[in-house]
Amino acid sequence: MIEAIKGQLKVTLEKYYKDKYQQNISIVVEEPKNRELGDISIPMFAVIKTLRRPMPEIVAEAIPVIQNASNVIVSVSNVGAFINLCVDKKLLAQEILKNAIQSESTYGDSKIGLGKQITLDYSSPNIAKSFSIGHLRSTIIGNSIRLILNKCGYRTFSINYLGDWGTQFGKMIVAYKKWGNYEEIKKDPIQQLTNLYVRFHEEAAQDPSLEDEAREAFRRMELSDPEYLELWRWIREESLKESAQIYDLLGIQFDSYNGEAFYNDKMDPIVKELEEKNLLKEDQGAMIVDLGEEMPPALIKRSDGGSLYITRDLAAVFYRKKEYNFDHILYVVGNEQKLHFNQLKRVISKMGYDFADSIEHINFGLYLTDGKKMSTRKGGVVKLYDVLMRAIDLAYELVSAKNPNLENKEGIAKAVGIAAIAFGDLKNHRSLDIEFNLEQAVKFEGQTGPYLQYTGVRIASILKNKTFDVSNCNIEVFDKPHYFELVKQISLFQSTIERAAIERAPSVLAKYLLGLAQSFNKFYSLEKINTEDEQIRNSNFAVAKATRIVINEGLRLLGIQYVDEM
Ligand code: ARG
Asked: Which residues have a Cβ under 8 Å from the Cβ of 539 and sit 6 or more positions away?
């Protein structure tokens, strides 16, 4: 809770020295280990050193500045070069609530990212294949990290790096030319294309020459053969429609959809540079970069001259560095690509570029059902759009059972269904495999997104048509544990968001919100909120309102919509 005022003191003192002495002094505000000294302690060594004046003078000058910084400070004293102060926690609680209520959705905004740019690469499904569960995780996690970074002041740029290039397109084109039908594909693109892909593999098992044909087809694409490129473009368009449906449902947009194909004509200069820097070696007709003992070499060019996944990623990262001048670039991709990103970083660092260190693989685990990997491969297609729709249907049943008279049941069911999926994912640290159970995730109780939405709705109904004045609270109640705990959590919103941003871990925020909702529900069970005493009522309403602000904004940062009724 004290945190809420620490920042304020730091800013006030730094501004004071800047204005008065034109000095940029970094002030440290700490919580003393020995609580008998006070709640907050400010060492003045840096000021003494910079201004080169005796300690007593510095301390004497600083004390009134501190005293005036906030009305919650009740006493200021000093021991040596330390200035210690005590705050009135009840007044501070009121300040925190006032601040949250006035700030509304800007509550928790942070400046730690000001002036910095972060580029994010996420979702990135493979065209002509079904949108997989892994791509859903990437989409949900990436989107949330992006929102959290924006909240912290970072400029961001989001890229959906579509897997729209590679030998699989050679296979697809060969299969289409042999067995495909334009009209059929138009009707149900992903299913039909998947069927073609599966058939290709079945037939190629009998007749290996098909593989050669596919390589040749892809080679033609790389050489910009117009007929092949036209087919490729059409397949890309058709299959993007499925992903677009999912993004619409989740309310997600990207700044760029430049996928692997976009880099087809941007790889040569990189390969040339590798060559000039003597990093390229021939190995059985292929070109590789040796990466030493710890990891296998990076394969840059196949023996038939074809490019590879890492070749395109190299071209992409250089293009992005030039285009967006990122301070960090985040790749939200599953654990299984760990080696790929290590190789990517290593190649760039071998080329002599420092920005290799700013490449971060934001890894995540698998979705498991009954301990087994949920798969979308080998024709056994779990259509992800159907999974999302199933969540929404389930939510519709629950919402209608609970509140038959609800207007806009569809809209609410959509928000609740998506909350179930998104929160079911984000409450786990991303690096872990998660066991997902849709029936559990949609429930209004337990550690779920709908539980948070429901807590918000409960508060909305408490506050409906009520007015209150947070400046006219009974502050004595803030001493009671169930008030104190709740206000303290509210005060930790900003630092929680900052930690989530720094760790690139939305789960930090998700867990915090669960704790907050639990504290609120406890508070609600112990306290009659709309009580007769006006000042206590104001305190209660203020606590409820601030909680709702944090829940709503927190949900938004997880890519989840809040609702007013359900
Ligand atoms: N399309 C790839 C896949 O599904 C993921 C791409 C990740 N991003 C990247 N820059 N490599 O495996």
From this structure: 473, 474, 475, 477, 478, 483
What is the number of the ligand 1 atom nearest to the C-alpha of 134? 4
Q: Which residues contact 86 (CB under 8 A, 6 or more apart)?
A: 38, 39, 40, 73, 74, 75
Distance between CA atoms of 95 and 333, rounded to whole angstroms? 42
Ligand 1 is surrounded, with C-beta below 6 A, by 121, 124, 126, 161, 163, 313, 331, 333
- CATH, residue 47: 3.30.1360.70
Q: In this structure, how many other beta carbons lie within 10 angstroms of the beta carbon of residue 277? A: 12
The model's pLDDT over 236-249, given as tens digits with 9 standing for 90+, comes to: 988 888 899 999 99
Q: Using one digit for the tens of pLDDT, what is the confidence trace for 343-379?
A: 999 999 999 999 999 999 999 999 887 667 665 444 4
First and final CA of the chain: distance in angstroms? 32
Q: Which residue's C-alpha comes closest to atom 10 of ligand 1?
A: 313
C-alpha 379 chain-centroid distance: 31
* Bridge partners of residue 359, in order along the sequence: 329
Domain containing residue 412: CATH number? 1.10.730.10
Could you list the residue range(s) of the whole structural domain that residue 74 is in? 3-87
For ligand 1, the distance from its centroid to the CA atom of residue 394, given in whole angstroms, is 32
- From 38, 65, 87, give the residue that closes a domain: 87
Residue 82 lies in a domain: yes
Backbone angles phi, psi at 361, to 5 degrees: -85, 110
Q: Whose CA is closest to atom 6 on ligand 1? A: 124
pLDDT in tens, 190-235: 788 888 988 999 999 999 999 999 999 998 998 889 999 999 998 8
Q: Which two tokens stand for residue 73?
A: 């400070």
Q: What is the pLDDT of residue 374?
A: 66
Is residue 430 one of the residues assigned to a domain?
yes
**Cβ-contact 100, 550 below 8 angstroms:** yes
Residue 57 lies in a domain: yes
* CA 450 to centroid of chain Cα atoms: 19
Bridge-based pairing state of the strands 328-334 and 367-369 = unpaired
DSSP letter assigned to residue 163: B
306-333 in b/e burial notation, b at 16+ Cβ within 10 A? bbbebbbbbbbbbebbeebebebbbbbb
Q: Pick from 70, 87, 104: which residue ends a domain?
A: 87
Closest CA to 165 of 272, 315, 269, 299: 315
In a domain, 21, yes or no: yes
Our count of domains for the chain comes to: 2
Of the CA atoms within 13 Å of residue 42, those in its CB half-sphere come to: 29
CB atoms within 10 A of CB 544: 25
